[in-house]
Amino acid sequence: MLNEDHNIDGGQAPGVHPSYTAFRVLKNGEHAPRNLCIDTDPSSIWDLRKNDRVLSTKWNDAHGVESSGGLYPRGMLSPVADLARNKTRFLLEESDHPSGVVFFYGCGGGTGSGLTTNVSARLFCDNPKLKQVHFVVSPNPGMRALPTSPVESYNFGLMANDMLDMTNCNIMVDNDALYHICAKKARFIKPNYSYVNKLMSMAVLVASSGWRLISSPSVKFEDMPTNLVISPLMKYSVMSLAPIFSYDVYEYDLQTTGDITRELFQPNSYLARCDPQGGAIAACISYRGEGVSAVSVSTALGEQTVRGGAKFVSWMNPSFKVGITPVPLPCMFGMKLPVSACMLSNTRGLAPHFGEIHHNFSSMLSRKAFIHWYLNEGMEFNEFEESLQNLNSILNKYMRR
Questions:
Q1: Cα 228 to chain centroid, rounded
Q2: Do 298 and 254 touch, CB atoms closer than 8 A?
Q3: For residue range 292-307, what is the model confidence (pLDDT) as tens digits?
Q4: Are the C-beta atoms of 353 and 387 separated by less than 8 Å?
Q5: How far is the C-alpha of 303 from the C-alpha of 57, rounded, in Å?
Q6: 287, β-bridge pairs
Q7: C-beta of residue 362 within 8 angstroms of C-beta of residue 306
Q8: Which residue in 196, 201, 321, 338 is deepest, having the highest Cβ count within 10 Å?
Q9: Cα–chain center distance at 354
Q10: 35 Cβ contact list (under 8 Å, min separation 6)
């Protein structure tokens, strides 16, 4: 989808919307993405290499020889981190002025939590001033739509504790909210991970358009953590995407900036389970489309603030960091969108989400459930107690009015 967004086909020269933020030029004149796919299990990387639609070179993937087995320490100690460090260093050295690194992963398994923590720590040691923005598929202990692992809360808590000082901003999504949007709003009969991944990809394309494409006002990569994170513990945000609709209402009437903005603040537009009425602390909104103007955006946000659609905490004045990209999305589930928008917001509505993870973590830890698997990999029990205290501190921060 990134290739389509930049009009790149088969690695050939880009079309009218080139971006050397997301792609690098090879010696033969073709373009390769500035990404690195990492996994402890080689099978997923081999599948990527066989896919002709994926632009990839030897510097775009790294894999180990065995799976992490869903355990944080096994992913943390995987030797693939050394290979990933070297390839990440090559991609950064080949960039002229790297502003930061974006991570995409699910933190419920051992690879997503443990290996990502190791790679992020090495990157932080080599480049402490480099911004790290993480798009995290977080665990949801109450999720029933898709299968989960019983130790997801452990993996998330251990990862959050070890990465406390390394990440600059964490964007949270969860499969339960994504599945609900695909089933209820997009009305897919049998939603699966393919639809869920595509929905998240659409949101990321809109959210990142400010620093990948020409935008007005100008939006830089560094603006995201600066505007969203108010303290080291409160660096978690959620995404909302608009519009989202089904095939049978393709001729939808949400074409004005005001309607798109109004839908952004609806609870069923958020890609993570949260309560928007808890009050936002900070927000960044990215608009895409040829008919979007700064005046219409200012008017729409003003209306939402006055009418209570955009609810902020009492001690924070309503303010939005806005970026407008005059390039519409290529498509959404096969349908072109003239106007779209994505909002990143740091909100107190995340408190119930962290509350579920904290409750599940503490309940299992009090019974020492599954602890022996982690201790056998070299961990100590006090690491779990420290992680639980960190989760409790995060929860208290988001619960405080």
A1: 14
A2: no
A3: 889 999 999 999 988 8
A4: no
A5: 48
A6: 324, 341
A7: no
A8: 196
A9: 17
A10: 60
